[in-house]
Amino acid sequence: MKNKVLGLLTILVLLIGSCVTDPGVADPCSTENTGDLTIVNATSGVNGIPMDIYINTHFTGATISPGGQHYEGSLAVGTYEIEGRDSNGTVTFIKTINLLQCEDLFVELGN
Fold first, then answer.
1. Burial (0-12, 13-18, 19+ Cβ within 10 Å), 36
2. Could you list the mean pLDDT of each consecutive 10-residue stretch along the chain, which spans 111 residues?
3. Hey, what domains does the chain have and what are their CATH numbers?
4. What is the DSSP string of 62-107?
């Protein structure tokens, strides 16, 4: 019983410690002027199509299944054109977004 209690206390301390931020350390997004981008394939069912993802006409290497998502990561603040293309390379969905500093943006293609 004593080992279980110590184990739970250790987990609790680690969990709380992982949530504490150091006030002396700036968030990397503010120092690097970036935001995070996640792209979601909002198609589903009989209309669901896999999408190759392009940002500003460049293939990202990601293909997202219907209902799936892809974390593109940190990008510089700015305007981006996000394209979802079918397997033939035809642009199926397109959105222009403005990524802001420290923003965690989810872009849905297919709705």
1. middle
2. 57 53 74 95 93 97 97 96 95 96 95 76
3. 29-109 (2.60.40.10)
4. EEE-TT-EEEEEEEESEEEEEEEE-TTS-EEEEEEEEEPTT-EEEE
The phi-psi region of residue 49 (left if phi > 0; otherwise alpha if psi is between -120 and 50; otherwise beta) is: beta
In degrees rounded to 5, what are phi and psi of residue 105?
-100, 130
Torsions phi, psi for 44 (to 5 deg)? -160, 170
Question: In this predicted structure, what is the pLDDT of residue 36?
Answer: 97
pLDDT for residue 68: 97
Q: Closest by alpha carbon to 49, among 107, 105, 5, 92? A: 92
Dihedral Cα 19, 39, 81, 86, nearest 10 deg: 160
Burial of 99 (0-12, 13-18, 19+ CB in 10 A): buried
pLDDT at 8: 54
